[in-house]
């Protein structure tokens, strides 16, 4: 999956060994447990690494052991490590991954520590040197359309542990809803900012997209996030399918293929000539009806048949307005 | 495993040997100094070649040269200046944002690189915790298979070719691109560059790339023109075209919130209970007609006529 994962073994361990020596030297004395945790290995593996470093021997012109270290009593000390006291320079991928992420954070609207971000970016660019250049060829745009005040108020509520009142637009149902929510955290996913909160109306964890918040108020009430409120795994994205969801099958023309990119589809089948059959899972079919109207002849609900019937009813009711 | 341990030991000794020598060392001197190489010179040479490649792949700057004009053979060394990460010190608030940044990629393409970079910075003495600043979790995801090869192509300045399923087309087409940059917008990745077939700057959406991305030239063979700025290209997309046209809509009271958010006027419809008259500006008639159709019987276009016809045609399509 990643470049590092693709080349395990000897060179991975070599990189670790080369970082381990300066890690200890820069801290003078450091515990085995803490070091193992930082490097993501067990204490036994760490002891193997330290032994390997200690055993390095060069045989010519005169035999000598360039590295001397000890780890008695669980405390590591390096007393000699000729020419290995600094880590290797950042590789282009390493510098880029960090710089792209820092610049993305600096783009976020709201109360980020912008000054710290600016200083960190500048220091990292200097330290990375040439390896920093390629990162300028990657840009991550964060949606800035959410009113700036919304995120600031959510941050206040999070800090003070207070409940929020939200007016929130649900486009799938074309509804402006009113609800109280106990904030858990802010998530930035796919370039959009969400509030993750315990919704007191749904009595469940919900994500609220900040650009759909119509009005917000910090209430003079302490937030009470119940213990069963489970934060979602941000890496699985903003949508969370459930077993209670309904399976919907759509057929799309070439002009309707964007649906497969826009919504998380369970299955996508190529029907040839650019046509697709996709299946989606959803707890609420109202947005699918609206999607089918918007697609017109470029999309067709195949299943369930009742839903296809509802779409036809919706379309004739709408057309009746023009009669 | 034993093989791998021996190899790690040998590579480690090789790095230490070359780092601690100011002089260039010949292959024979290296074989004598570093334990673990075979006695047979040809076998040694083959193994040494592979070792050099592996070190270079890790970014270890292996230099070749001669100590004096009288030397007959090329030697090797690692310049400490080229090897070492320069001094970098971060204040606690800077280390905190670095820790947050390292989590952004999480399970995405550059996650391993972010972790490797953070580890080197920690090895330079920086105490960056990966769990700081509670309350915000930023993530970048790279679900598109084309991200990895296109990032490499951009990084190494190599042209690429790929199949592309353009919107509205029935079959994918082969495209050849000199990539300038990759851009994430609304969670989707795009590649910007010079399309060799079209002879123009083009943008491709990664999720529409069909099949593998292949390199069609060596590293360094793409020149990014001066002034080609991927950040700028993205900002240009954001400047919405001026909303020049005005629509008159009849909207059922309590519905059509998305349309009302962009209204220039919104008042009760005279003589028709439960309906409002809404004036709204728009720029892209096709997109706007689709959007209006999605509200079904809750929204009626009064004018302009071509918008009204486009909505009716959408609705008839859904009925068919």
Descriptive notes:
The complex is a heterodimer of chains A (323) and B (320). Chain A is an alpha+beta fold and 323 residues long. In chain A, 36% of the residues lie in helices and 28% in strands. Chain B is of the alpha+beta class. Chain B folds into four domains: 2-83, Arc Repressor Mutant, subunit A (Orthogonal Bundle); 91-141, no CATH class; 147-238, SH3 type barrels (Roll); 245-319, no CATH class. In chain B, 37% of the residues lie in helices and 24% in strands. In chain B, strands 7-6-5-4-8 form a five-stranded antiparallel β-sheet. Chain B has a four-stranded antiparallel β-sheet with strand order 10-11-9-12, with helices on one face. In chain B, strand 5 and strand 6 (188-195) form a beta hairpin. In chain B, helix 10 packs across helix 11 (305-319). The radius of gyration of chain B is 30 Å and the shape is elongated. Chains A and B meet through helix 1, helix 2, helix 5, helix 6 and strand 4 of A and helix 1, helix 2, helix 4, helix 5 and helix 6 of B. Strand 4 (138-140) of chain A pairs parallel with strand 5 (173-185) of chain B, so a sheet runs across the interface.
Question: TL;DR?
Answer:
Chain A is α+β, with helices and mostly antiparallel strands and 323 residues long. Helix content of chain A is 36%, strand content 28%.
Lay out the secondary structure.
The complex is a heterodimer of chains A (323) and B (320).
Chain A: H1 3-6, H2 10-27, E1 29-31, H3 32-39, H4 43-54, E2 67-70, E3 75-81, H5 92-107, H6 114-128, E4 138-140, H7 148-160, E5 162-170, E6 175-189, E7 192-199, E8 204-209, E9 213-222, E10 246-252, H8 258-262, E11 267-272, E12 275-282, H9 286-295, E13 299-303, H10 305-320
Chain B: H1 2-19, H2 27-33, H3 41-57, E1 62-65, E2 75-78, H4 80-83, H5 92-102, H6 111-123, E3 136-138, H7 147-156, E4 160-164, E5 173-185, E6 188-195, E7 200-205, E8 209-215, H8 230-238, E9 245-252, H9 257-260, E10 263-268, E11 275-282, H10 285-293, E12 299-303, H11 305-319
Antiparallel strand pairs in B: 1-2, 4-5, 4-8, 5-6, 6-7, 9-11, 9-12, 10-11
Helix pairs in contact in B: 5-6, 10-11
């Amino acid at each position: 999956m990643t470049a590092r994962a693709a080349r395990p073994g000897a060179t991975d361990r070599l990189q670790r060994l080369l970082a381990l020596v300066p890690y200890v030297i820069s801290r003078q004395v450091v515990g085995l447990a803490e070091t193992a945790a930082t490097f993501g290995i067990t204490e036994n593996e760490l002891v193997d690494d330290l032994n390997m470093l200690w055993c390095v021997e060069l045989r010519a012109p005169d035999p000598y052991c360039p590295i001397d270290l000890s780890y008695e009593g669980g405390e590591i000390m390096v007393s000699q490590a000729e020419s290995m006291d600094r880590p290797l320079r950042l590789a282009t991928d390493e510098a880029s991954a960090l710089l792209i992420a820092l610049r993305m954070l600096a783009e976020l609207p709201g109360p980020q520590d912008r000054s710290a971000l600016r200083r960190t970016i500048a220091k990292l660019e200097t330290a990375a040197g040439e390896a920093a250049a390629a990162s300028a060829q990657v840009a991550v745009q964060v949606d800035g359309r959410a009113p700036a005040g919304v995120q600031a108020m959510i941050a206040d509520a999070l800090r003070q542990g207070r409940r929020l009142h939200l007016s929130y637009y649900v486009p799938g149902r074309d509804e402006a809803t009113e609800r109280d929510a106990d904030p858990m955290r802010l998530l930035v996913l796919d370039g959009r900012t969400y509030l993750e909160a315990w919704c007191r109306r749904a009595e469940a964890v919900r994500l609220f997209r900040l650009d759909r918040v119509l009005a917000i108020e910090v209430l003079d009430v302490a937030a009470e996030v119940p213990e069963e409120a489970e934060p979602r795994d941000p890496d699985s994205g903003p949508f969370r399918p459930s077993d209670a969801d309904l399976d919907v099958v759509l057929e799309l023309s070439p002009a309707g293929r964007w649906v497969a990119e826009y919504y998380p589809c369970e299955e996508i089948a190529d029907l040839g000539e650019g046509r697709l059959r996709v299946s989606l899972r959803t707890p609420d079919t109202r947005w699918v009806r609206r999607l089918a109207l918007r697609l017109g002849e470029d999309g067709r609900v195949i299943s369930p048949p009742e839903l296809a019937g509802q779409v036809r009813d919706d379309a004739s009711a709408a057309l009746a307005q023009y009669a | 495993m034993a093989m791998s341990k021996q190899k790690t030991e040998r590579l480690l000794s090789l790095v230490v040997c070359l780092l601690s020598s100011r002089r260039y060392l010949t292959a024979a001197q290296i074989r004598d100094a570093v334990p673990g190489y075979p006695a047979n010179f040809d076998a040694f040479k083959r193994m040494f070649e592979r070792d050099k490649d592996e070190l270079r792949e890790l970014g270890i700057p292996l230099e070749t040269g001669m100590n004096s004009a009288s030397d007959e053979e090329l030697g090797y060394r690692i310049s400490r200046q080229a090897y070492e990460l320069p001094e970098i010190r971060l204040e606690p608030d800077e280390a905190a944002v670095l820790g947050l940044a390292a989590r952004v990629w999480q399970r995405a393409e550059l996650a391993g690189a972010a972790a490797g970079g953070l580890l080197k910075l920690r090895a330079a003495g920086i105490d960056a915790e990966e769990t700081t600043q509670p309350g915000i979790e930023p993530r970048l995801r790279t679900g598109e298979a084309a991200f990895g090869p296109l990032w490499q192509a951009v990084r190494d300045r190599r042209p690429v070719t790929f199949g592309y399923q353009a919107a509205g087309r029935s079959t994918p087409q082969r495209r050849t691109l000199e990539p300038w940059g990759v851009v994430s917008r609304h969670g989707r990745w795009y590649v910007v560059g010079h399309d060799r077939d079209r002879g123009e700057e083009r943008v491709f959406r990664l999720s529409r790339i069909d099949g593998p991305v292949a390199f069609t030239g060596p590293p360094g063979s793409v020149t990014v023109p001066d002034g080609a700025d991927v950040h700028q290209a993205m900002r240009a997309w954001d400047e919405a075209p001026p909303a020049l046209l005005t629509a008159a809509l009849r909207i059922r009271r309590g519905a059509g919130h998305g349309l009302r958010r962009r209204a220039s006027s919104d008042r009760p419809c005279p003589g028709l209970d439960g309906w409002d008259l809404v004036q709204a500006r728009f720029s892209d008639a096709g997109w706007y007609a689709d959007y209006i159709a999605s509200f079904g019987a809750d929204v009626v276009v009064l004018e302009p006529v071509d918008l009204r016809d486009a909505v009716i045609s959408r609705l008839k399509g859904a009925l068919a």
